[in-house]
Write a structure and sequence with these properties.
The chain is built from 14 helices and 4 strands. It has 305 residues and is mainly alpha-helical. Bound molecules: geranylgeranyl diphosphate.
């Protein structure tokens, strides 16, 4: 539970309810998309998309949509699933032997260990255009005009590609064994993790046809919680074990610069708390600080995995 101005917000119940709705939206998305996938990739994709996860990106998207005055929550949920399809592909690829070579994620075997590297690599690749197609169709089903649909799809593409998540992953690989400066680490994570988290807020706001000021505030909130999320990931990697994380901690093994290696655990916690404060102020100043978005900001830093 978290408290805001004396009103308590049942975060765990909210997350559980929203997570279930996201699971349903993802199942529907797979029913529509998988028949088009080459046969051998289907089970790898189903595993990568349906096996656990906090579903934070779609939950943020739907919450931003609501805070910005959107009135079609089930349409927003269908749209939000496209963010999780991109996230799922990124984890399928990230765990491959040529990347992190991870046998476990979310406490379960990774897709390539069960379905093979080829099916996982190709299925993950097929998810990238499928996610964009799904976003485009979801916008049309919400009755958004084509120019808004294009803005949404462009936001998803920009966040996923070379200027966003994939670019950040490249910087991450180049940074192994190198001590990065704090600004370099911020840039890497703003791209690798922050871009898709921020796109979740941006896409929710766009679909709700938010005013420019509301869109700006939600994007600022996204930038701040995106970084706070990564600082927390580094703290968890340094302080938790495989049982709590559901995967092997790996930063130290890969000799990566992290917020913990550059700042230390306690200053990193303080930095994450400051970022949450900044996120809340951005929304507060625009009058759109919903209990859900406040609780989600706090959750990005107060989580066990
Ligand atoms: C083409 C080989 C190839 C790679 C594409 C893999 C890749 C580029 C990028 C991946 C970048 C990446 C793994 C970003 C996500 C980092 C991160 C913080 C993941 C964990 O997110 P959570 O905590 O996970 O939201 P859950 O399990 O809750 O879904």
């Amino acid at each position: 539970m978290t408290a805001r101005g004396g009103v308590s917000f049942a975060l765990n119940a909210f997350l559980e309810t929203e997570r279930k709705k996201v699971e349903e939206a993802l199942a529907e998305a797979l029913d529509e998309l998988l028949p088009e996938f080459p046969g051998p990739t289907r089970e790898a994709v189903r595993h990568g998309v349906t096996t656990g996860g906090k579903r934070l990106r779609p939950i943020l998207c739907v919450s931003a949509y609501g805070a910005a005055g959107g009135t079609d929550p089930s349409g927003a949920l269908r749209l939000a699933a496209s963010l999780e399809l991109i996230h799922a592909y990124s984890l399928m690829h990230d765990d491959l032997p040529c990347m992190d070579d991870a046998p476990l994620r979310r406490g379960r075997p990774t897709p390539h260990t069960l379905h093979g590297e080829e099916a996982t690599m190709l299925g993950g690749a097929a998810l990238i255009p499928a996610a964009h197609l799904h976003a485009w169709r979801a916008c049309a089903r919400m009755g958004l005009d084509e120019s808004m649909g294009r803005q949404v799809v462009r936001a998803l593409a920009a966040a996923s590609g070379g200027e966003g998540m994939v670019g950040g992953q490249v910087l991450d690989l180049l940074g192994e064994g190198v001590e990065l400066k704090l600004e370099e680490l911020d840039r890497l994570h703003a791209m690798k993790t922050g871009a898709l988290l921020t796109a979740s807020l941006r896409i929710g706001a766009l679909a709700a046809e938010a005013s420019p000021a509301t869109l700006r505030a939600l994007v600022e909130y996204g930038h701040a919680i995106g970084l706070a999320f990564q600082v927390t990931d580094d703290i968890l990697d340094a302080t938790s074990d495989v049982g709590a994380l559901g995967k092997e901690p790996s930063d130290a093994d890969l000799a990566k610069s992290t917020y913990v290696s550059l700042l230390g655990v306690e200053p990193a916690r303080a930095a994450a708390d400051d970022l949450v404060q900044r996120a809340l102020e951005a929304l507060g100043a625009s009058g759109i600080l919903s209990p859900a978005l406040e609780a989600l900001a706090r959750y990005t830093v107060h989580r066990a995995h």
